[in-house]
Amino acid sequence: MSFLRNTLSKFSIFAKSDYKPLVSNFLSLGLIQVANFLLSIATFPYIVRVIGVERFGVITLLQTIMLYFVVLTDYGFNLSATKDISTNRNDKTRISGIFSEVMTTKLVLLLLSFIILSCSFILVPDFREHWTLTIFSFTIVLGQALQPTWFYQGIEKMKYITYINILNRILYAVGIFILISQPQDYLFINLINGISLIIGGVISLFIVFSKFGLQYSFPSLSQIRKQLVDSWNIFFATLTVSISNNTNILILGIFANPLVIGYYSIAEKVFQIMRTLATILYQVVYPRVCILAQESFEVLAKFLRKFFRVILVAFLPLSFLVFAFADYIVYLITGEFISEAALILRIICFGPFMAALNIPASQTMLAYKLDKLYTVVLTIGAVINVTLNFILTFHFQAVGTALSIMLTEIFITGLLYYALYRKYPHYTFFINSPLMKSTKV
User: Fold this and answer.
1) For 203-232, how does the pLDDT look when each residue is reduced to its tens digit (9 = 90+)?
2) Which residue, of 230, 254, 277, is where some domain finishes?
3) Which of 150, 206, 285, 308 sits CB 3.0–4.6 Å from 81 for a disulfide?
4) What does the alpha-carbon distance between residue 379 and residue 3 come to, in Å, rounded to a whole number?
5) Where are the transmembrane segments (predicted)?
């Protein structure tokens, strides 16, 4: 009984009224992911059956390319702007200014993205061949640019994003089932996705102005430039991670046949679902970290030490369960016992646990404006990931890819904490030492 009480006490930080927004936002983001998962199960098989595997590969490739434009237009604002909104949440005038600057900067980057895409029609023959699909796919970038998710994160009101994201997915699913009925309709799949995102973005902006009373004012060029400069390190880190994460299957495709890639994809799907929990925690906790960091590091450290224990209690048992039942998980997905896929899943199932472990260190860096150090760590991690992928995948194929992912996750997590300890020991929150003293931002 004492063990049970001690275990439950780890979660006591979420029972207090001050932390009720954390629980609410976690559940809101969790509901989004559940809705996305269920609707993906409904639409994915239908799309593949109607348009065929080859055309599905084409639209997936375009979606991946558009993802890089999404990273460019987001420009790290999901972290930098979230922090600015969170720390100024009681100053409506300042929030309006931040909102105006960020949205205008995103539109400038959106225009830049379209110019780059237009130039690609001249330089890349494949784009010219699929120019209609490419233009339709760009609506995804527009839709994502209109989403002020960073604003709702900053004010800790994620329920609005929950409603809007579920609406987006429902609109997408309805559009797919109504409009996609023959192979030639593959041209419209990404367009349907983009339009649903645009509708959600417009509704989000309407809520921002009507519910929260923000006023838009056109920012000066110096203000836009300041947003670009201030968010550069976070943008570069995000871009580095995006490039790193999207190279795994690409490198595997160089050394392995489609069957091996399929085995890896099954395991990676489960890995991504597990990692989503860490992503949700990251998004939910970050605004609160920024607020506590303003009070003092002692207050923040107390919160982070409790949060660290929550991660251990929540994620470690989940990873062990997936490890133990990997064969049955693969069977539930495929209807077959595939030992190769189960082995890959066992290797990478602790990756989300490691990703959750690095949340306290990475958010401490961001809260105290140690963006350059954060960027350096992630850049080193990305280089190591790509290097290990080429070496291990060449020798062990999908197992090598899985090993490279796991080793990279361990390295990044360890390096984040080590970098804090070596460079900024007064931000080390594991040890109660004289260095752990109140440090105002």
Assistant:
1) 999 999 988 888 888 999 999 998 898 888
2) 230
3) 150
4) 41
5) 21-44, 56-77, 98-124, 160-180, 186-208, 249-266, 310-331, 343-361, 373-392, 398-420
